[in-house]
Inverse folding.
């Protein structure tokens, strides 16, 4: 069992149990709702996105455990000749916790209101030079505004956007 402790909050996280890396007893979510009046929550990858762009840079099957995903990721990097081996990928997986936006929103709504700002973030990113990767995709989406709107709407509707950006405002007291 993978146990990792967050030194700041003293939280223990597990990579097994309820899916791939829900925080044990949802400790982090509870702590956010307990100490925050307002919070901006941003993380990647979203568990249900299906592709981890930042940590393992490969396909992730959300309903598989991290160790069941490891052979697939190893094969993916081998055929793409990225130089990342199983040991490197195992380390990345051990440090990554996949949480779905659906789960986070559901827990946060118990204590307040939640606003998703993914659409705003993407629109701003495409218009600016914020991202140094994805230049061709950015240029394409700038030219095809209707297609961009459809893609963003579908990602949000199915809750599979790659990065999660939420504003939380507490309206109920948390103990």
């Amino acid at each position: 069992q993978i146990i990792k402790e967050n030194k700041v909050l003293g939280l223990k996280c597990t990579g097994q149990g309820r899916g791939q890396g829900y925080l044990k007893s949802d400790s982090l979510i509870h702590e956010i709702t307990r100490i925050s009046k307002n919070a901006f929550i941003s993380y990647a990858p979203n568990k249900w996105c299906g592709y981890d762009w930042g940590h393992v840079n490969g396909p992730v099957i959300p309903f598989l455990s991290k160790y069941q995903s490891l052979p697939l990721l190893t094969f993916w990097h081998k055929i793409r000749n990225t130089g990342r081996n199983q040991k490197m990928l195992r380390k990345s997986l051990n440090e990554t916790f996949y949480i779905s936006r659906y789960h986070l929103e559901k827990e946060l709504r118990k204590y307040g209101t939640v606003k998703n700002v993914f659409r705003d973030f993407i629109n701003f990113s495409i218009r600016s030079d914020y991202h140094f990767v994805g230049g061709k995709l950015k240029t394409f989406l700038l030219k095809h505004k209707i297609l961009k709107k459809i893609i963003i709407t579908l990602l949000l509707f199915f809750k599979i956007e790659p990065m999660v950006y939420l504003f939380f405002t507490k309206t109920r007291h948390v103990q």
Notes: Strands lie at 3-6, 11-14, 38-43, 51-52, 58-59, 112-116, 164-170. Helices lie at 27-35, 66-80, 86-94, 101-108, 118-127, 135-143, 145-157. The longest helix spans residues 66-80.
